């Protein structure tokens, strides 16, 4: 048990570190853009490069886990992310900057998939929810660190990335020196919520899914709708976090310090919401909570776009972050109920992939529209995405009711 508790703590540290680089680009981008003389919409290319690296490593993580073991894979992957962040410091051109972004995605994908795979077998459902909240805490700390460096060191965007790189290097060393614990604890599980272990549940589910191929799992319309839902959701969550700083500083004249703080608040409420809703989902209907949260995202995006006052914009960011919090974990947890156990594992894989592609595509599209039509249209796209997201959810609920 002591070993499991230590590994649980290290897993929390891993998810925290995974969130650190995710929000950094959104704060640093105005200064990176100016340094390399880039169009504003090219932030989407940076996100896309990271997404390509993420997809490459996450799809092959099973192979590398078998070759290296969990602990060694996490150590190597964290070192790769650290190298990518430190590489930003030395980048002399945008092409080199993009290559390091892809390197960070390569390491992050392996960390994310490796930790989730291990946690699904060894940690309870409650800890799974809170591990994802730890990611939100890391995504909150990232903008705070970057903003502090920008304000304290004459807007030196390179130094902020280097600080994050050193933190990831420390995490890599933690994974390296604890690698033997991951292997010795391979058959233990922390499960404090139920009498049945999560690993047994996974074995049962895997047995059921052997009857369904990936191609067959792509046929049900509800699964296709879920794929679209996760595509749009990830685009909203990541897009708002990446673009809010640029919109506030370059369009609305908000100071670097204030804008950085409120981007951090956005990510902070995403983490806080996952903790709060982790309790509420046990007391209220998940469907009703998600519907209210999706409407809250629409209203928050509208407030941020309307910008009646700076404080209504800040309230909009808070609403988007807090209301977005339970959507990803709750929709994942409802997959088996909505599509059946035979399709669930395939469907979850499709959803994760769709989320990554959405996080690459929709923020880039928002940036392109901002280049063509003006920066104000960037925030307007998030209102449109949020409305589409609510419509997709209603469609999923209707399809589930019809098939029941």
Topology (elements, then pairings):
Elements: H1 2-19, H2 24-36, H3 43-59, H4 61-68, H5 70-90, H6 94-122, H7 125-152, H8 157-177, H9 179-184, H10 198-209, H11 214-217, H12 221-251, H13 256-280, H14 286-306, H15 310-324, H16 327-333, H17 335-339, H18 341-373, H19 376-403
Helix pairs in contact: 1-6, 1-7, 1-8, 2-7, 2-12, 3-6, 3-18, 4-5, 5-6, 5-8, 7-8, 7-13, 10-18, 12-13, 12-15, 12-18, 12-19, 13-15, 14-15, 14-19, 18-19
Description:
The chain has 404 residues and is mostly helical. It has helices spanning 2-19, 24-36, 43-59, 61-68, 70-90, 94-122, 125-152, 157-177, 179-184, 198-209, 214-217, 221-251, 256-280, 286-306, 310-324, 327-333, 335-339, 341-373, 376-403. Helix 18 runs antiparallel to helix 19 (376-403). It is globular, with a radius of gyration of 20 Å. Mean pLDDT is 83; it is low at 186-210.
Which stretches are low in confidence, meaning pLDDT under 50 for 5 or more residues running?
186-210
Instruction: Name the overall outline.
Output: globular
Q: Kindly, what is the distance between the CA atoms of the first and last residues, rounded to a whole number of angstroms?
A: 42 Å
- Overall pLDDT, averaged? 83
**Got a strand count?**
0
What structural class is derived from the secondary structure elements? mainly alpha
Give the helix level as a range of percent. Answer: over 70%
Q: Gyration radius, to the nearest Å?
A: 20 Å
**What characterizes the major β-sheet?**
none
H/E element order: HHHHHHHHHHHHHHHHHHH
**Beta-strand content bin:** under 5%
- Number of contiguous helices: 19
């Amino acid at each position: 048990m002591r070993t499991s508790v230590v590994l649980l703590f290290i897993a929390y540290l891993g998810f925290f570190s995974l969130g650190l680089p995710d929000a950094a680009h959104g704060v640093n981008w105005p200064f990176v853009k100016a340094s390399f003389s880039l169009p504003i919409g090219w932030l989407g290319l940076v996100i896309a490069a990271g997404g390509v690296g993420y997809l490459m490593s996450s799809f092959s993580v099973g192979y590398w886990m078998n070759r290296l073991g969990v602990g060694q894979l996490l150590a190597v992957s964290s070192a790769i992310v650290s190298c990518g962040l430190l590489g930003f410091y030395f980048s002399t051109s945008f092409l080199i900057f993009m290559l390091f972004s892809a390197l960070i995605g390569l390491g992050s994908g392996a960390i994310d998939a490796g930790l989730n795979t291990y946690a699904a077998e060894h940690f309870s459902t409650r800890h799974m929810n809170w591990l994802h909240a730890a990611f939100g805490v890391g995504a909150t700390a990232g903008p705070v660190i970057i903003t502090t460096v920008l304000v304290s060191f004459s807007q030196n965007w390179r130094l902020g990335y280097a600080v994050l790189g050193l933190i990831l290097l420390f995490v890599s060393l933690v994974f390296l020196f604890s690698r033997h614990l991951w292997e010795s604890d391979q058959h233990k599980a922390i499960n404090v919520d139920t009498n049945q272990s999560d690993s047994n549940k996974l074995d049962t589910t895997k047995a059921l899914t052997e009857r369904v191929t990936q191609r067959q799992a792509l046929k049900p319309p509800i699964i296709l709708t879920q794929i679209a839902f996760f595509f749009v959701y990830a685009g909203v969550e990541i897009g708002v976090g990446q673009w809010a700083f640029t919109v506030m500083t370059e369009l609305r004249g908000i100071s670097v310090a204030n804008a950085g703080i409120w981007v951090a608040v956005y990510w902070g409420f995403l983490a806080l919401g996952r903790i709060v809703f982790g309790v509420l989902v046990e007391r209220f209907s998940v469907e009703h909570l998600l519907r209210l949260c999706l409407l809250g995202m629409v209203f928050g995006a509208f407030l941020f776009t309307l910008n009646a006052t700076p404080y209504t914009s800040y309230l909009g960011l808070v609403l988007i972050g807090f209301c977005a919090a339970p959507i990803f974990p709750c929709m994942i947890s409802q997959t088996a109920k909505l599509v059946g156990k035979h399709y669930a594992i395939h469907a979850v894989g499709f959803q994760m992939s769709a989320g990554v592609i959405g996080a690459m595509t929709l923020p880039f599209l928002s940036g392109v529209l901002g280049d063509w039509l003006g920066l104000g249209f960037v925030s307007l796209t998030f209102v449109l995405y949020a409305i589409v997201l609510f419509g997709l959810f209603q469609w999923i609920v209707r399809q589930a009711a019809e098939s029941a």
